[in-house]
Amino acid sequence: MRINLLLLLALAGQLSAQGNYTPGQSYFGTDEYIEYIPGTLPLLLSAPHGGEKTPASIPDRDCSGCSYVNDFNTQELGRALAQALYERSGCYPHLVMNRLHRRKLDANRDLEEAADGNPNAEQAWTEFHTFMETARTQIGQTFGKGFYVDLHGHGHSIQRLELGYLHTKTELQLPDSVLNLAPYPTDNSIRKLSAANPNNLSHAELLRGALSLGALLHQRGYPAVPSPADPFPDADEDYFNGGYNTNRYGSYNGGVLDGVQIECNRNGIRDNLSNVERFADSLAVSLLQYLQMHYFGPQAPEWCTASAVAAPHTHGAPQFLKIYPNPASDYLVLEKNGQAQAPLQLLLFNFSGGLIQSLPLDAPQTRIALPRAQFPAGLYHYQLFLGGKSLQSGSISVL
Ligand SMILES: [Zn+2]
Question: Are residues 262 and 292 part of one domain?
Fold first, then answer.
């Protein structure tokens, strides 16, 4: 342990000597086994099982019951996700990657199982978590809250995303009314969010309701469990519910971040690089919406001061969305301007600021008619988002 402490201090000294991190640039630990790309979004991403390096100086791990199988294309997914978030919001997330093959280091286990006693692997493990802690501290100091995603790939037969909040599948099989009772809301990786969120959603709603991460991903064509369409894994179905990192960096033990382990299926997501990029974009948009809906509200802060912002400006811009008639009496029509870039998201708020609907407008159709019956008479506020940027906002009066 003494050696690790010294290495940790050496690493910290080396980083502070370099001054502040530059968002979007790569920083490396010893022998480039661990890579950290710092960001300014309140999002921490990690890819612990996507490495390919197999240095002879680190013997293969040989421990009872250990897994040595890599998660194919998850390092590529981490990089593509960081890039997509940048393109959508103009800002980078924090991304930490283990570039060692899992045979050499498992960066989603405690030190003993992760490194199997090898000093070089222990050093890499320590550096991985030093970068993780650095990013978490940075997000905490800037925002006081944020979200963590641990990226993995599963080989299970059902082709769906497995979202792990540290609930077992037996727990997820419980009805919402039970999941909302002690001890479940405080026994998971989003307990901070469950304790207080802007829309006063229950724990079960956060796990698998209409505004859950599973719902946002399902809306974009990526089936996920838990989600409204697939609320829990059946008893005979395989499911990963979250590991060491989700436990450590989510809010299970406190801390500023909530978190989830995303286990990605292979078909259509990790099987080739164009599918990786397509999924990364959908996940990026979903995560930005998630941050707005559940953490920062419609008045989301400027995540960064980067000059290169991908989203169009609002001033002098055309209307991206026409909403009529206004005031509305029988129905409400949302009509997308042909110039509007997909995918857009419309959030509707009631007069007191509560979110009542979140509509993805990235489908090919340009018009959506909403039955008036869905809206009690009153004044509503809407905001239209492209990725992390608000494009347009206004009021709708319903008679
Ligand atoms: Zn994994």
Answer: yes
**Distance in Å, CA 231 to ligand 1 centroid:** 22
Residue 387's domain comprises 321-398
**Does residue 249 share a domain with residue 347?**
no
Residue that the structure tokens 């960066």 belong to: 107
pLDDT digits (tens, 9 = 90+) for 307-343: 333 332 333 344 677 777 666 767 777 777 665 555 6
What token pair was written down for 73? 């294309």
105 C-alpha to ligand 1 centroid (Å): 12
State whether the Cα torsion 60-63-69-74 is positive or negative.
negative
Amino acid at 103: R
- Give the burial class of 344: count Cβ atoms within 10 A of its Cβ; 0-12 exposed, 13-18 middle, 19 or more buried: buried
In a domain, 356, yes or no: yes
88 C-alpha to ligand 1 centroid (Å)? 27
> What region, left, alpha or beta, does residue 237 occupy, with left being phi > 0 and alpha being psi -120 to 50 degrees?
beta
- In this structure, what DSSP letter does residue 293 have? I
Q: How many domains does the chain have?
A: 2
CA–centroid distance, residue 81 to ligand 1 (Å)? 17
219 and 325 share a domain?
no
CB under 8 Å to 6, separation ≥6 — which residues? none
**Using an 8 Å Cβ cutoff, are 34 and 21 in contact?**
no
Using alpha carbons, select from 178, 343, 193 the residue that is nearest to residue 260. 193
Contact yes or no for 59/118 (Cβ under 8 A) = yes
What distance in Å separates the CA atoms of residue 289 and residue 200, rounded to the nearest whole number? 17
pLDDT (tens digit per residue) in 237-274: 999 999 999 999 999 999 999 999 999 999 999 999 99
In a domain, 314, yes or no: no
Q: At what angle do helices 273-291 and 74-89 cross, to 10 degrees?
A: 50
Question: Distance, CA 96 to ligand 1 centroid (Å)?
Answer: 14
Q: Are residues 233 and 275 both part of a single domain?
A: yes
pTM of the model: 0.76
